[in-house]
Amino acid sequence: MASTALESAPDTAIEWKRDTAQVPYRAALEAMEARNAAIASGKASELVWLLEHPPVYTAGTSADVSELVNPQFEVIEAGRGGRYTYHGPGQRIGYLLLDLNKRGKDVRCFVHSIEGWVIDTLSDFGVQAWRAQGRVGIWTRDIDGREAKIGAIGVRVRRWVTMHGFSVNLDPDLAHFGGIVPCGIEEFGVTSLARLGKKVSADEWDAALIARAQGFLDALAKTGRKA
């Protein structure tokens, strides 16, 4: 793994790490579980981890086998909330291992803050995105004029320390989503920045995301003050 720490981290109490090489999903899952336990026991700092996976389908706790239409890749039980999703090259992932004991024990506000962070970052590349009532994730207008998902969110909270996080489609092979019903939503498609005519590299995305991170942390801080 070509793993590097970010030099301009917005919060030095958090470890900010990015991988430029693809990280196998099982290895990432094992690392997250170990880090979650270490954070909960006070033996490690919080972590924001940016990376990509080789092609894989992951199943959330609400996954329905009928939505596994034509799997082309390995299917792994993820332990996060949600249903089936696809991860692969060209899709940037942010894993958030944060301690909600000190950031406010409100999972709904945590997810809402993640959505806002991604939406703000997409706006920096000229993509208008939004939340949709009753549909978790990040939505935008596709090239055919219909709503489509450009980012997915799935989290798990154990001992009030978070795991998993979000994914954003920079330029994945969108045909790979055809092996599943993504997130259990059949009536809407999946799109990417590339499909929308925006060529954005992983380096460019990560830099913009980190530049917007303080707003995300401030939103969590407000939640913590309310707790």
Structure in words:
With 227 residues, this protein is of the alpha+beta class. It has a single domain, classed as BirA Bifunctional Protein, domain 2, CATH 3.30.930. Helix content is 25%, strand content 30%. It has four helices and twelve strands. The strands form two sheets. Strands 1, 2, 3, 7, 8, 9, 10, 11 and 12 form a nine-stranded mixed β-sheet that branches. Strand 1 and strand 2 form a beta hairpin. Helix 2 runs antiparallel to helix 4. It is globular, with a radius of gyration of 16 Å. The mean pLDDT is 91.
What is the topological layout?
Blueprint: E1 3-5, E2 14-19, H1 25-40, E3 46-51, E4 56-59, E5 75-77, E6 84-87, E7 91-97, H2 107-123, E8 129-132, E9 135-141, E10 147-158, E11 161-169, E12 189-190, H3 202-211, H4 213-226
Parallel strand pairs: 2-3, 4-5, 10-12
Antiparallel strand pairs: 1-2, 3-7, 4-6, 7-11, 8-9, 9-10, 10-11
Helix pairs in contact: 2-4
In short:
25% of the residues lie in helices and 30% in strands.
Instruction: Give the biggest beta sheet.
Output: 9 strands, mixed
The percent range for helix content is 25-40%
Shape from CA axes? globular
- Compute the number of strand runs: 12
CATH superfamily: Bira Bifunctional Protein, Domain 2
Name of the level-1 CATH class: Alpha Beta
Assembly type of the chains comes to: single chain
Round the mean pLDDT to the nearest integer and report it. Answer: 91
Uncertain stretches: none
CATH architecture: 2-Layer Sandwich
Our Rg estimate from Cα atoms comes to: 16 Å
Q: Per DSSP, what share of the residues sits in E-state strands of 2 or more residues?
A: 25-35%
Number of domains: 1
Distance between the termini: 38 Å
Provide the structure class. alpha+beta
Order of helices and strands: EEHEEEEEHEEEEEHH
Number of helices: 4
